[in-house]
Amino acid sequence: MLRKLRIFYGHSNPALAHEICDHLGVETGKMTIHKFSNDNFKVKIGENIRNDDVFVIQTAALPANEHLMELLIIIDALKYASAGRITAVLPNYFYARSDKKDEPRISIGARLVTTLLEAAGADRILTMKLHAPQIMGFTRIPIDQLLATPVLLNHYRNKDLSNAVVAAPDVNSAKSSRVIARALNLPMVVLDKERLDDKERVTMRNIIGNANDKDVLIVDDEILSGGSIIESARILKQHGAKKIWAGCTHGFFTNNAVERIQESPIEEVVTTNTLPQTRDNAGKIKVLSVGRMFADAIQAINSGKSVGALFKDV
User: What is the mean pLDDT of residues 130-158?
Assistant: First the structure.
């Protein structure tokens, strides 16, 4: 017998949460979140959820630390309300870039987040396109990782790709870029990139492959300030590229990224709504929805079916 499906959400991306509920045909759970003048949160579950299968949606949108703390308290309240199983649905994972100890005496934030989620009472995690796949090994609770690849492919198949190549933004991205290239039956080039700091300042050293007189499609996992993707476009233009399209799963667009993209040689930047977006059809930025994909994954988890089956064609 299936447990009753319940959906709760925090303040990080209500639009996506409501879209997921619409696809599932369920109402959002009753819950109140009060923020006191000292920035402390109080969460109260407003209905009986005893033994139910509960999914709580919260993404790493700004202010990320506040949304993370809100998520932990929501999970704790659900646990005390005797939820049967709690799945933390994180369209964008908190501290995903802090995935390794590459400097002395630093914290590995992504590992800490998994520990906090488990301690709060989460029984499993559902997320999309982790910055580093090793994050899935940071905890003993199950983690399902969705990919925006089917949504992005559907978009790019509507373009004229007869003269196109796929560009991996760096050597580490070559494997995921190859999936895109194979699915679209396109050749691939690789950018030899070195990151200078966490503000996306990069230097390009070379291009492996031929982009001369080609339309180029660059797909990365995320765009922060836009520095990396814009520098990639600049070096591709120097090597003779014609049209340049860019895509990512997580569009943060921090600082003046939107303005810089508008002024760049990139013709279009596609992102998804794993983070709240208000720029659809605004200039070069187009937003695609992953609401249906999350709804299908939640339905699969609730019914005990395979989440991986959603990607059998990728």
Answer: 93
Q: pLDDT by residue (tens digit) across 41-70?
A: 999 999 999 999 999 999 999 999 999 999
End-to-end CA distance of the chain: 32
Query: Helices then strands (H, E): number in the chain?
Result: 8, 14
Residue 309 structure tokens:
């089956």
Report which of 244, 297, 255 is spatially closest to residue 274, judged by C-alpha positions.
297
pLDDT in tens, 191-239: 987 666 555 556 666 788 999 999 999 999 999 999 889 999 999 999 9
At residue 2, the pLDDT reads: 64
Domains in the chain: boundaries: 5-147+292-311, 149-288
Distances in Å between the Cα of 109 and the Cα atoms of 11, 59, 303 are 22, 16, 32
Fold adopted by 149-288: Rossmann fold (3.40.50)
Confidence of residue 134 (pLDDT cuts 50, 70, 90): confident
The two domains 5-147+292-311 and 149-288 share their CATH topology (first three levels equal)? yes
Q: Tokens standing for 31?
A: 């819950």
Which pair of tokens denotes residue 113? Answer: 């987040």
Its sign, for the CA torsion 246, 252, 256, 259, is positive
The catalytic site residues sit at 193
Q: Which CATH architecture has domain 5-147+292-311?
A: 3-Layer(aba) Sandwich (3.40)
